[in-house]
Amino acid sequence: MLPQNTLSHAHKMKLRWFVTLSTLPLLGVVTAFGIMPQADTITREQKSVIEDIVLPSAPAIAGNATTFWRNERIQRGDTIAELLRRLNVEDQPASDYLRKNKAAEGLRQLAVGKDVQAETDANGALLALRYQGNDANQIIIEKTGNDFKARTLPAITEQRIQVRTGEIKTNLFAATDEAGLPDPAANQLADIFGGDIDFHRDLRKGDKFTVIYEMTYINGEPTRTGRILSAEFINHSNAYRAAYFQNTESGGNYYSPDGKSMRKAFLRSPLEFSRVSSGFSMSRFHPILNKWRSHKGVDYAAPMGTKVKVTCDGIVAFVGKQNGYGNVVMVNHQGRYTTVYGHLSRFAGGLRSGQHVGQGQIIGYVGMTGLATGPHLHYEFRINGIQRDPLKVALPDGKPISEAQKAAFADATANLYGQLDMLRNTRVAKLD
Residue 165 and residue 291: Cα distance in Å, rounded? Predict the structure, then answer.
């Protein structure tokens, strides 16, 4: 046997070949590199070989791209010329038509952010242009011979059902934002459960919600948030549920599975969201008067101009300035209740004494008039003229489903509550 380090002449002549295909299609060759073992020197019998091998021609691409589509978005200050430049349109007759023709007036008035699609040939001539008008109709401008013609396709409107689930980490609206729930639906969620849950004080990290709601789409794009159909909020391990039921010809309300109205006679808070800066107290040091006195209301700290809602249907008893309240609105309800809204920056337009107002109606805006050190709302809840703590007082319920409508209610909401069951089970399974 030959020693291990002794190589035959034939073995020394063996080469390892690495074949690399060129990535440049215009070259069309394969280059082969011969590499000798690094430990040996090259002799006359051992040579590096470089050889070009011609590749077969690439198969022809079926069809030729003769037109091109490009999409651009309307920008602030855009002109027709600038828009066409970004769309790669080089066509003076098309530019003249779009700048002057009445049929293209909608394009010239198009809102910022709207999309425009253009089809051009290889030379930049405009063949077609499409956009959604401000009225949501589809406008198509097409080249016909040597001229252009516009046509309108009616908007395609549809209602789609959306589902969002979320978990509280800091506050309600941070959680709804993270879950992708639109603000109008988030506000509805707070209104629906606002009689049972004080979103200023009662939220806990880990609380969960599920919302099933309608969304209007026009030409495949979401345009308007509709009504919540059903929802669940789990607060302190207590599950609250509500579904919408139309119980009159003119409208409906939200009810729990057993038919109780979710709409309390009074909202827990006159603001959509804020924080309690000063609670109800029989003895509080007043920061302006510098003395101890009772504070028979609740102060909600909120930015200047925040909308203030009346918490119950009622009749406006007073609108104007009054002592330390500053700009204040007082509303009477059901003969024995009165609510007070103080330190307002201004009142809702047209608000006057004797006017009927509905629950949730905007009556003013947060300010710091009167005896106030910063912008906030002073809110009082009076029963027979005596102030009570609005955060603790038992609020009267709204009207439940009537006996005559219980069967119809059960039929109409069975599927909605069934969907909430399914979503809760799915969510638990994912968490597990």
Answer: 48
- CA 100, 102, 108, 109 torsion-angle sign: positive
CA angle 32, 29, 21 (to 5 degrees): 60
Q: Which amino acid belongs to residue 57?
A: S
Q: Where are the domains of the chain?
A: 67-153, 275-388
Quote the CA–CA distance of 323 and 346 in Å, as a whole number.
16
pLDDT tens figures, 340-363: 999 999 999 999 999 999 988 999
The fold for domain 67-153 equals: Nuclear Transport Factor 2; Chain: A, (3.10.450)
Quick: pLDDT tens for 283-317. Answer: 444 455 454 445 678 898 889 999 999 999 999 99
CB neighbours of 143 closer than 8 A, spacing ≥ 6?
Answer: 94, 125, 126, 127, 128
What does pTM read for this prediction?
Answer: 0.57
**CATH class, range 275-388:** mainly beta
Q: How far is CA 87 from the centre of its chain?
A: 30
Q: What is the dihedral of CA 81, 86, 90, 91, to 10 degrees?
A: -50
d(CA 380, CA 376): 13
Please say whether the beta carbons of 372 and 366 come within 8 A.
no
